[in-house]
Specification:
CATH superfamily of the largest domain: Aldehyde Dehydrogenase, Chain A, domain 1
Oligomer: single chain
Strand order of the largest sheet: 15-18-19-14-13-21-22
Number of strands: 25
CATH topology of the largest domain: Aldehyde Dehydrogenase, Chain A, domain 1
Largest sheet: 7 strands, mixed
CATH architecture of the largest domain: 3-Layer(aba) Sandwich
Structural class: alpha/beta
Helix content: 40-55%
Bound molecules: ligand TXE
Shape: globular
Distance between the termini: 68 Å
Strand content: 15-25%
CATH class of the largest domain: Alpha Beta
Number of helices: 15
Radius of gyration: 23 Å
Length: 480
């Protein structure tokens, strides 16, 4: 059985404890590799390596840092097929989605920040006749990056790239559920000649390795993406240590469809926003609100398209929904479908687990599920399910739909479908979310701030936001 290795001080190595965890393939339900069951001793070794590398990395010429990040991007691109296969096998997503989204975005993350570091400027403020101030934006030192299982290498590199670009050294932990592409990234970094200790990847459990990273006194900032409950635990540990924190947490995103939308395109895109990656994207639209006059027509067309979605082997070209990431997560999703029925919902399509066939006989599959007739305040409509389950709810007025959309503790993303320009801006201003897409979904410009409000987290990733997160601003004031 293949053993994935930690990447510490430039070397691939076993966990110091020589303890291992099973790594499951969601499509087959079978263990296909072992990952290090690392602990605080491995995190200590990684942190010391990062500290030792910091002086030279933070003082390296910008062009040197840029060229290394570009080489890493090229290395991923050269090994694209391996990364695509690994991402799909680890997460359960289809090969076509991994090839279309996850891996290209990981490459873009490194290329974007390789270029951004060359243009990252700060400001000066003149006091006429008295003096001048200038702001130095300096790297923090050793930072921690912890990422989830839904978009494994996409979100892992979304943190690591700006951290490295700004001259920090990194101790990073991917989800123990989807470690493989991070392991491949380690190999690419070695092949690219990234100096030892600049990036360290420690595999293992969140409560052990993740917690050790968060509480290590020499790791000065934490960039985390994952569940809201975990975000709370991380904040409780890091806040008293005065660490910088970026928390990208859960979501329960509204999709608001007005009667004047471009009907066919809206139905198609709303299906996409509901069920991409089996609904396991924090940006997915899981609460769909439709203007009453359009409700029946939209419901009919939407359910028809959902019924046509194919659930099955992620390796098959015609599969739309692959496997759910784990047995535990499959059971969590099924429990919410059961709850929806108990709360009075009507299942319009789906609602059942799917028995795989052939190699996937023991895989984790669930039908795309559409539910109507629920109160907007019920648990099914308030709690994050993070799977292929959406609800439909009609509305009459803007005020009513905004009240329902904003009724959840989350505030991450939203989409609004209308051709009324003024209404689009009006609604966008009032939605409690960090991202509002108008007549589109998941259209991303990496220069824009990315993050949520309320229980969806604090801080922003993306563009200069990420570069500022990973640097400290020092004001130098000179009297002349
Ligand atoms: O996240 P976790 P999981 C939501 C979604 C999902 C729930 C839990 O609802 O069902 O979060 O998913 C590490 N200290 N999202 O289990 O547990 C853990 O090892 C430090 C939304 O994946 O938060 C993993 O690497 N680290 C989210 C990472 O944190 C800890 C995407 C995420 O694990 C830790 C994924 C600790 N105490 C899930 N405990 C989004 N916003 O995109 C765990 N970890």
């Amino acid at each position: 059985m293949e053993q994935l290795l930690n990447y510490i001080d430039g070397r691939l190595q076993k966990p110091l404890s020589d303890q291992w965890l099973d790594n499951y393939e969601p499509a087959t339900g079978k263990v296909y590799s072992h990952i290090p069951d690392s602990d605080s001793a491995d995190v200590e070794q990684a942190t010391q390596a990062a500290q030792a590398a910091f002086a030279s990395w933070s003082n390296a010429p910008l062009e040197e840092r840029m060229l290394l990040l570009l080489k890493i991007a090229d290395g991923i691109e050269t090994r694209m097929d391996e990364f695509v296969a690994a991402e799909s096998r680890d997460n359960g997503k289809t090969l076509k989605l991994a090839r279309a989204m996850d891996i290209p975005r990981a490459i873009s993350n490194f290329r974007f920040y390789a270029s951004a570091l060359q243009h990252f400027a700060s400001e000066s403020h003149q006091m006429p006749g008295v003096g001048i101030n200038y702001t130095l934006r300096q790297p923090i030192g050793v930072v921690g990056c912890i990422s989830p299982w839904n978009l494994p290498i996409y979100l892992f590199t979304w943190k690591i790239a700006p951290a490295l670009a700004t001259g920090n050294c990194v101790v990073a932990k991917p989800s123990e559920i989807t470690p493989y592409t991070s392991y491949l990234l380690s190999q690419v970094c070695i092949e690219a000649g990234l100096p030892k200790g600049v990036l360290n990847i420690v595999h293992g459990l969140g409560g052990k390795v993740g917690q050790a990273i968060v509480e290590h006194p020499e790791i000065k900032a934490i960039s985390f993406t994952g569940g809201t409950e975990t975000g709370k635990r991380i904040a409780a540990t890091a806040a008293p240590m005065f660490k910088k924190l970026s928390l990208e947490l859960g979501g329960k995103n509204p999709t608001i469809v007005f009667a004047d939308c471009d009907f066919e395109e809206t139905v198609k895109q709303v299906v996409n926003s509901a069920f991409s990656n089996q609904g396991e994207i924090c940006l997915c639209g899981s609460r769909i609100f439709i203007e009453s006059s359009l409700y029946e027509k939209f419901k009919k067309a939407f359910v028809e398209k959902v019924k046509a979605l194919k659930v099955g082997d992620p390796n098959n070209a015609d599969t739309n929904l692959g496997a759910i990431v784990s047995l535990a997560h499959k059971q969590k999703i099924l429990s919410y479908i059961k709850l929806a029925k108990e709360e009075g919902g009507t299942i319009l399509t789906g609602g059942n687990e799917v028995k795989g066939s052939g190699r996937c006989a023991d895989g984790y599959f669930i039908e795309p599920t559409v539910i109507e007739g629920l109160d907007y305040l019920c648990r099914t409509n308030q709690e994050e399910i993070f799977g292929p389950v959406v609800t439909l709810t009609p509305f009459d007025t803007e005020e009513e739909v905004l009240t329902m959309a904003n009724s959840v503790k989350y505030g991450l993303a939203s989409s609004v479908w209308t051709n009324d320009l003024k209404r689009a801006h009006r609604v966008a201003e009032k939605i409690e979310a960090g991202i509002v897409w108008i007549n589109c979904w998941l259209l991303r410009d990496l220069r824009t701030p990315f993050g949520g409000v309320k229980a969806s987290g604090v801080g922003r990733e993306g563009g200069w936001e990420a570069m500022r997160f990973f640097t400290e601003a020092k004001n130098v004031c000179i009297k002349y």
